[in-house]
Amino acid sequence: MSTDCxxxxxxxxxxxxxxxxxxxxxxxxxxxxxxxxTHVLVIPKEHHPDAATMAAADPGLAGxxxxxVGEVAKADGVDDSGYRLVFNTGADANQTVFHVHCHVxxxxxxxxPPG
Length: 115
Ligand code: 5GP
Ligand code: ZN
Fold this sequence. Notes:
This protein is α+β, with helices and mostly antiparallel strands and 115 residues long.
């Protein structure tokens, strides 16, 4: 655990969040600044800075995370209507929290390409 990492602190429950789904290895909670009716962040409980680093270090954990994405989509009722998964990675993608998180966005039509 990294005490200066916001999302590690959410995992520790030192910072409050609206948790929507949890397993032994993965936590899902609502984004504080939602960009769509469904905007959930799905994170591994273990600290990894980005998706590729996580997948290289622990492919099973990457699979766990994607399985939770499916559960979140079902729970929010967007599994049939559709949703978008985003892993912002690095400066050009505006990653601001360096604990890997998958944005699950849905509940409205999402334009493509993104800006
Ligand atoms: P990034 O830009 O790194 O892909 O996304 C970070 C996301 O974390 C942003 O969408 C931002 O709104 C969200 N966020 C930042 N601080 C908090 C917080 O304290 N709680 C929650 N639930 N989300 C946060
Ligand atoms: Zn962290």
